[in-house]
Structure formats: structure tokens, C-alpha cells
Amino acid sequence: MHEFILGTPISLDEHEKMMRKSPNMEHNKPYTAHVAPGESATLIWKFSETGQFTFACLVPGHYEAGMKGIVIVES
């Protein structure tokens, strides 16, 4: 299982801590996508401003392993 979550570094850190306590918690926000092994998913997000936006996989152990990055939005 993997997930893709857009957020700020602070919100992702907080969410990662919650995921450690409840790894099977349900996610239904439009800025998240969950992907089962061998599957794929599509997340469509319209950015309303330029800048750098953080994303991560917060499945326990994945964030710590480096599954995170930055989306750069330019005009």
C-alpha cells in the first residue's frame, strides 16, 4: 500500500505521527490518493498559486524511508 498526500511539511509530519498510531485510518480528502499493491491511481489537483508544495507517502515506515518530495508550480 502507498499513498500520495499533498500538504505542508508541518501537516505531513503531524499526519505521519497519526498514521503510526492508526495505520489503517481512512482517508477521503481530495488531496490524497491511496494505491494498493500492483494498482495505480490518479489524483487531479488544480493549484491556485505558484510555489513549492510538499507531498509524501505516510504509510508507516515509508516517509522515514524518503518517500516524499516537492511539486514545483510555475506560471
By DSSP (H or I, 4+ residues per run), the number of helices equals 1
Overall number of structural domains: 1
**SS strand fraction:** 25-35%
Helix content: 10-25%
- Secondary-structure content class: alpha+beta
Distance between the termini: 34 Å
Reading the helices and strands in chain order gives: EHEEE
**Overall 3D form:** globular
Strand order of the largest sheet: 2-1-3-4
Radius of gyration: 12 Å
The description of the largest β-sheet is: 4 strands, antiparallel
**Low confidence ranges:** none
Average pLDDT, rounded to a whole number, is 91
Total beta strand runs: 4
Structure overview:
The radius of gyration is 12 Å and the shape is globular. It starts with a strand and ends with a strand. It has one helix and four strands. It has one domain (2-39, 46-73). A four-stranded antiparallel β-sheet has the order 2-1-3-4, covered by helices on one side. 17% of the residues lie in helices and 29% in strands.
